[in-house]
Amino acid sequence: MRVWFLTHRLPYAPNRGDRIRAYHMLRWLHRRADVDLLSLVHDDDEERAAAGMSARATSVHTGMVPRWRNRLASLITLPTRRPLTLSLLDAPALRIALQTLRQQSPPDVILAYCSSMAAYAMNPALEGIPVVLDMVDVDSEKWRSLAQEGPRYLRPIYAREARTLRVFEERAVKAARTTIGINERESQALRQLVPGADIVTIGNGVAFDSFAPLSDHAGPATGVVFCGVMDYPPNEAAALRLIREIWPLVLAQRPDAALWLVGTGPTERVRSQAAGESSIHVTGKVPDVRPFLWRSAVAATPLTTARGVQNKVLEALAAGLPVVVSPVVAEGLPTSVQPGVVVADSDRAFADAICRLLALTSSERHRIAAAADLKALSWDRQLEPLWDILTAAAASGRRKSA
Q1: If 0-12 CB within 10 Å is exposed, 13-18 middle and 19+ buried, where does residue 364 land?
Q2: How many CB atoms lie within 10 A of CB 339?
Q3: Which pLDDT value is given to residue 218?
Q4: CA 120, 310, 324: angle at the middle one, nearest 5?
Q5: pLDDT at residue 212 in the model
Q6: Residues β-bridged to residue 5
Q7: What is the percent of the chain where pLDDT is above 70?
Q8: Quick one: which of 248, 218, 275, 217 has its CA closest to 354?
Q9: pLDDT score of 97
Q10: What is the pLDDT of residues 31-89, one digit of tens each?
Q11: How high is the mean pLDDT of the chain?
Q12: Which of 63, 105, 222, 371 would suit a FRET pair with 164, their CA atoms being 20 to 30 Å apart?
């Protein structure tokens, strides 16, 4: 079987949330089928990484996203009903690659990763080819939440994106043979969006063996870690909440504590807010987050807007850290991992939970993290239903009408 895998970001290296799931999907598929990867790339680093991926797919085709052109196009789009997401992720080079490859190596089925790639899968040049859509998160719901909780001056833009993207998501789900949600919350939102659609849940996994700590902490660790792409609005808001609201409450009880904000793209707001406090460390991009997890005692995930499954929680648990999470993060977690997390519904509760965990011994913290059943979340086990979904779509031999 020949599968086209369409991704909105090159699925390598698996060092950020929007790459991890796609990376493991590609790895899993390439062992079973001929996979042509067609991916957007956003900078020269991604383009160079794509050149070295010949062993990871049957073929690799990329399209550079013209950032400034697309920003201008998005301004022109504002008075229309077109989602800004589609304008910002438009890549003419990838559209050309799709048309060329259709003539050379037509696929049996297209697997489109995220709603933004559904637009490419629905290209008229691909008429008749069945599509499976891995929606991952229902992005319109994320924008709806940001319209309520984001910066006031951006809320009208976020509300517009929620409305327009929801209309597009409905079209995309209707066009797909099967649509995949990352957990039951996302799948239920898709069922409400398109009643009667074939909706299946395939959760995220975790490569727990690679995150297992090499040894126990040698001494009483006092580090608290938050990992994420820091210029992603929900992560930026969570980092600012940690710095401004939660961390002063932690220091009042534990003046020896240290906060590590680990991840690419820290914004000027995050850096400036952290600059005045010597106990807060903003790393920027790092080659590997695992050393920061291994030398910390507790992980914190205080997001107020979250969809899907937070990889950062699964990875912290695999590294032996108990995790303090907000209720909205807890809602998206598999039941099997919830014994390893503490849910805190306010800044005070968040700070108190961090301090309680810091007061434990390393062995006690590891026992809490180990209560999460991660072995049930291996990527091979999680992705097992995908093969039947793709083969059934390919056997149908046609795309559904939107």
Answers
A1: exposed
A2: 14
A3: 46
A4: 165
A5: 85
A6: 37, 111
A7: 97
A8: 248
A9: 95
A10: 999 999 999 999 999 999 998 898 999 999 999 999 999 999 999 999 999 999 999 99
A11: 93
A12: 63
3.40.50.2000, 3.50.50.60, 3.40.630.30, 3.40.50.10490: which CATH number matches 208-376?
3.40.50.2000
- Compute the half-sphere exposure of residue 209: CA atoms within 13 Å on the CB side of its CA: 2
Name the residue ranges covered by the structural domains of the chain: 2-205+378-396, 208-376
pLDDT digit string (tens) for 95-111?
999 999 999 999 999 99
Fold of 2-205+378-396: Rossmann fold (3.40.50)
Nearest CA to 119 among 189, 79, 72, 63? Answer: 63
For the record, the structure tokens of 384 come out as 């097992």
Instruction: State the pLDDT at residue 226.
Output: 97
Residue 402 pLDDT exceeds 80: no
Both structure tokens of 149: 């909780």
Other residues' Cβ atoms within 10 Å of the Cβ of residue 7: 27
Neighbouring CB atoms inside 10 A of 244's CB total: 12
- For the record, the structure tokens of 108 come out as 């049996």
Cα–Cα dist 374/385, whole Å: 18
Instruction: Convert the pLDDT of each residue in 133-177 to its tens digit.
Output: 999 989 999 999 999 888 888 999 999 999 999 999 999 999 999
Q: Which tens digits make up the pLDDT trace of 163-216?
A: 999 999 999 999 999 999 999 999 999 999 999 999 999 999 988 888 988 765
Contact in structure between 328 and 261 (CB atoms under 8 Å): no
Two domains, one topology: 2-205+378-396 and 208-376: yes
Q: Which two tokens stand for residue 154?
A: 């951006």
